Amino acid sequence: MGVHAAALISDPADQAESVFHQCWYPLGLLSEFPAGQVFGRDFLGTRVVLYRDAAGKIVVQSAWCPHLGADLSVGSLVDGQLCCAYHHWRFDTAGSCVHIPAGDKIPPRAKIATLPSARAWGLVWVFNGTAPSYGPPNIPGVSEDELAIETHRRGARHTDPWVAVSNGVDFQHLRTLHGFPGALTPETLTIDDHSIEYNVGGGGYTQHGRISGTNCFAQYLKIGGNEMFMLFAGCSVAAGKSVSYYVIGVRRGMPAPEQQARLAGLKQFVDKLYAEDAAVLDTIRFRKGVLVASDRHLSRFLKYVDNFPRAEPFAA
Question: What is the largest CA-CA distance in the chain?
């Protein structure tokens, strides 16, 4: 039962990301981005623009026009191309400038970066990198089409998203903060380059948890015969600032009134967990302090976060 000393960090800003993890980040609810419109989001200390292409796929690109830096999210779509409001330069879905109304020759550098995007669990996801190194997050043991789901925006926090995700392997806090008397600690974690996973069960309690990247925790939870499916994800808006989302689900196939009642009960359960966490996570000055033996899984997570690949947004 040793105590592991770690160097104290003098200021929480030292923990804030300046070069961000190469993760899949949720940019918003899929329902927020109808076809034919252009949207802007602050993202990884910069800004992106979102719109749907002719096939309905979400396109995510740098929001800054390479001409004079106008915000392309205040522009429009013209013939499926992104049109800058300032001088009406137009860009295709690959990011190349394809039209300058003044008639000038298009410079080779007249391009905007395009990021990989995906849609899953009622969310629009974008990857910080030129090519994804792993797939979009999912809930362990189930596919999306097996569940009836609800997707919600939780709101902003003044922390990087991995701080909240650390709760997924902080088994002490399930007992102390949330009062889970049956919460168990797994013997081991399975860790690879882009995920952490575990299974634990006993006494009418089953949990299968998975961390994807550093910003998403999903789990299957069964307590007393009641199955619950959850996914929690955060998007880094800037260093030390994030916006969080969550997905709840129940199995399809039950009568509609029962399905809605179970979703309502699960939302109440998740909202209670969020409210209990909020008192801590909205005020925390997170630092690696003095860790004890009970923190062994949390300690491995923190090492995993430290070693996770990072990149500047739109880096080639």
Answer: 74
Same CATH fold assignment for domains 22-127 and 144-311: no
Where are the domains positioned within the chain? 22-127, 144-311
Mean pLDDT, residues 191-209 taken together: 92
CB 311 within 8 A of CB 128: yes
Rounded to an integer, what distance in angstroms lies between the CA atom of residue 5 and that of residue 240? 25
**Residue type at 215 in one-letter notation:** N
What is the distance between the alpha carbons of residues 235 and 79, in angstroms, rounded to a whole number? 31
**Whole-angstrom distance, CA of residue 221 vs CA of residue 188:** 18
- In angstroms, the CA 84 to CA 69 distance is 10
CATH code at 22-127: 2.102.10.10
Q: Are the C-beta atoms of 25 and 69 separated by less than 8 Å?
A: no
Alpha helices by DSSP H, listed for the chain, are 161-165, 171-176, 256-281, 296-307
CA angle (92, 98, 103) in 5-degree steps: 155
Residue 162 has pLDDT above 50, yes or no: yes
Three-class DSSP labels, 143-212: CHHHEEEEEEEEEEECCCHHHHHHHHHCHHHHHHCCCCCCCCCCCCCEECCCEEEEEEEECCEEEEEEEE
CA distance 88 to 156: 34
CATH architecture group of domain 144-311: Alpha-Beta Complex (3.90)
Residue 272 in this model has a pLDDT that exceeds 50: yes
- So what's the pLDDT on residue 223? 85
**Segment 224-269, tens digit of pLDDT:** 889 999 999 999 999 999 999 999 999 999 999 999 999 999 999 9
* Residue appearing with tokens 């990011």: 95
Which two tokens mark 314? 């739109």
User: Which pLDDT tens digit goes with each residue over 45-63?
Assistant: 999 999 999 999 999 999 9
